[in-house]
Amino acid sequence: MAKRVAIVGAGVSGLASIKCCLEEGLEPTCFERSDDLGGLWRFTEHVEEGRASLYRSVVSNSCKEMSCYSDFPFPEDYPNYVPNSQFLEYLKMYANRFNLLKHIQFKTKVCSVTKCPDFTVTGQWEVVTQHEGKQGSAIFDAVMVCTGFLTDPYLPLDSFPGINTFKGQYFHSRQYKYPSIFKDKRVLVIGMGNSGTDIAVEASHLAEKVFLSTTGGAWVISRVFDSGYPWDMVFTTRFQNMFRNSLPTPIVNWLLARKMNSWFHHANYGLVPEDRTQLRVPVLNDELPGRIITGKVLIKPSIKEVKENSVVFNNTPKEEPIDIIVFATGYTFAFPFLDESVVKVENGQASLYKYIFPAHLPKPTLAVIGLIKPLGSIIPTGETQARWVVRVLKGINKLPPQSVMIEEVNARKENKPSGFGLCYCKALQADYITYIDELLTYINAKPNLFSMLLTDPRLGLTIFFGPSTPYQFRLTGPGKWEGARNAILTQWDRTFKVTKTRSVQESPSPFASLLKLLSLLALLMAIFLIFL
Ligand SMILES: Cc1cc2nc3c(=O)[nH]c(=O)nc-3n(C[C@H](O)[C@H](O)[C@H](O)COP(=O)(O)OP(=O)(O)OC[C@H]3O[C@@H](n4cnc5c(N)ncnc54)[C@H](O)[C@@H]3O)c2cc1C
Ligand SMILES: NC(=O)c1ccc[n+]([C@@H]2O[C@H](COP(=O)([O-])OP(=O)(O)OC[C@H]3O[C@@H](n4cnc5c(N)ncnc54)[C@H](OP(=O)(O)O)[C@@H]3O)[C@@H](O)[C@H]2O)c1
Fold first, then answer.
1. Transmembrane stretches, by residue range (predicted)?
2. Which three-class secondary structure state does DSSP give residue 297?
3. In angstroms, rounded to a whole number, what is the distance separating the alpha carbons of residues 154 and 332?
4. Ligand 2 pocket, mutate which of 56, 172, 195, 219 (most atoms under 8 A from CB)
5. Measuring CA to CA, how many Å separate 503 from each of 77, 227, 270?
6. CA–CA dist 465, 452 (Å, integer)
7. Which atom of ligand 2 is nearest to the CA of 329?
8. Ligand 1 atom nearest to CA at 198
9. Distance between CA atoms of 495 and 242, rounded to whole angstroms?
10. Average model confidence (pLDDT) for the chain?
11. Which of 194, 214, 332 for a ligand 2 pocket mutation test, highest count of atoms within 8 Å of Cβ?
12. Do residues 7 and 83 touch, judged by C-beta distance below 8 A?
């Protein structure tokens, strides 16, 4: 009999999990507390309890070629960075294409997931749900937890002396929907993550004055990267990753700083990250330097004190009148339906082997999908996790002994830098390509670049030097997709189809032609010398 798998949440990770279960002949039942799929990507006018919330203007910060499910490219007429409404449309197309909807029970909240009394033998779980006020319960052979980690706001009011006396309005960025509330107001946004920066920039078009307060500073990069290419298609390549990972961290950090400063010098804009030993997720914003240089956004240090109608910043004596404070201070996460003995969250980490399996359970029948911060898109990352998980649930892949898993988890908690490459030492951070490659190795789906360079050099070179698009995770192994090779070789066509909407004639530069001729001559000379 097929194993029954309960999937909690029908966002990006839940949808991938349903599909992976079906592919491996498992029987998934997905419980989604809200009334539709899409999770975070489904914008609603009002914040819903227990589900991540977006503001209307959110556009993805990883591009469509890097953010798709590995066997389902975005429609080619979609923009490279996808507005939330189109992102949701894409997820709906995915669910329809793979017939996932019939496996989802909407308006059904998972209240508890507990081990069955014979868990050590069966590995089974009792899942208690609530649907329109009615409780239900069922036994499952396995559970995949896909509830995301951007729902519970982190609001450290204690760190802001005087906030209780503030007479203006304050709220967490989770509550923010439209910029109209900022019209003619003096606005302070606290926290320079992607939310804070987006909100400050958006407010600056309407507000009287906007301050963006940052304790740590950040690298700000534009989606429009080198020569206009999407940033992640340039940054996330196997070649670049190998190069970065073979250099000592201080050199990589220096090179990174040079790169980041090539758009604008961060120190001159008061933005330069204070702690450069650890990677801080870059802020993707195409407008911020323009808003700063035109005086529409003022970058400020941390807050010393909040008063009735104003704030005082550290290291600046002047009191600034403020009407609205937005706390863009990020999120915490928890699993309220799980007992702490199953997954314990401490200091922003959960004790999960490879960010997925509770390391101490005697049976590997519970997995968390999408609880990771790779420097790359979470969509293919969660999907690859799910591909491995379903094979573990089926018993095809085995986990190492508990002691090995616990050791790995503890080592990660210690956050010791390796000394090479970027330092992914903060909680949940991971090197995107290395992490996915590791999971692909477990399921025999990692592309073998060496043999590919011999058998299909065009593809091999594109994979090595080109963007690490998810299609390369489907070239081989279980779940192999016949369209993968073609999708890789046409990825740039889809990228520029939507930007080159007016056909232009490029006049060839005589200098470039001369350079090409000289290179050819040098190559011929080298060949001649080798065989002489
Ligand atoms: C503004 C913003 C922009 C982002 N842009 C990008 C981007 O460009 N690229 C990228 O890769 N990532 C991006 N992210 C990260 C984002 O988290 C992922 O893209 C993705 O949405 C995560 O999907 P998920 O399925 O893991 O979680 P979610 O999308 O949060 O889905 C979780 C689902 O679980 C349901 N649920 C929760 N608890 C229960 C319960 N007890 N019972 C039943 N159902 C439950 C929720 O209702 C929800 O539908 C962005 C995040 C934000 C905030
Ligand atoms: N367009 C997009 O695609 C988009 C938009 C928004 C969010 N996102 C994603 O959503 C996720 C969450 O982003 P987020 O910006 O909401 O959260 P975040 O990345 O966690 O950033 C929160 C920021 O709050 C500040 N902060 C934290 N604790 C603080 C404290 N005690 N006092 C003062 N400041 C404090 C820090 O900024 P300082 O060091 O500057 O003070 C921190 O960087 C990220 O993965 C992000 O990439 C994407």
1. 511-531
2. strand
3. 6
4. 195
5. 16, 18, 41
6. 13
7. 24
8. 1
9. 24
10. 94
11. 194
12. no
Phi first, then psi: what are they for 245, rounded to 5°?
-70, -10
Q: Which value, in Å, is the radius of gyration of the alpha carbons in the chain?
A: 25
Structural contact between residues 385 and 213, judged by C-beta atoms closer than 8 angstroms: no
Q: How far apart are alpha carbons 13 and 69 in whole angstroms?
A: 10
Q: What share of the chain is helix, strand, coil (3-state, %, to 5)?
A: 35, 20, 45
Nearest to 301 by CA among 432, 199, 188, 429: 188
Please check the confidence at residue 521 and state whether its pLDDT lies above 80. yes
Render pLDDT for 491-503 as a digit per residue (tens, 0 to 9).
999 999 999 999 8
Is the pTM value of this prediction over 0.70?
Answer: yes
Cα separation, 150 vs 168, whole angstroms: 26
The Cα 170–Cα 163 span in angstroms is 9
pLDDT digits (tens, 9 = 90+) for 187-245: 999 999 999 999 999 999 999 999 999 999 999 999 999 999 999 999 999 999 999 99
Strand partners, 357: 353
Asked if residue 495 lies in contact with residue 91, where contact means CB atoms within 8 angstroms, the answer is no
Tokens of 266: 């961060």
Q: Which protein residue's CA is at the shortest distance from atom 48 of ligand 1?
A: 39
* Span 127-158, pLDDT tens digits: 999 999 999 999 999 999 999 999 999 999 99
Check if the beta carbon of residue 368 is closer than 8 Å to that of residue 145: yes
Between these two residues, 182 and 529, which has the higher pLDDT value? 182
Written as one letter, the residue type at 110 is: V
Q: Comparing C-alpha atoms, which of 35, 26, 39 is closest to residue 140?
A: 26
8 A C-beta contact, residue 303 and residue 79? no
How far is Cα 485 from Cα 470, in angstroms, rounded to an integer? 11
Distance 317 CA to ligand 1 centre (A): 41
Mean pLDDT of 411-426: 84
The DSSP call for residue 2 is P
Residue closest to 338 by CA, chosen among 105, 154, 127:
127
Closest CA to 469 of 495, 448, 441, 442: 495
Mean pLDDT comparison of 5-14, 339-348, 418-427, highest-scoring range = 5-14
Q: Which pLDDT value is given to residue 524?
A: 77
Contacts of 352 (CB under 8 A, 6+ apart): 343, 358, 359, 368, 371, 409
- Side-chain-side CA neighbours of 214 within 13 Å: the count stands at 25
Q: Is 161:178 a contact under the CB 8 Å cutoff?
A: no
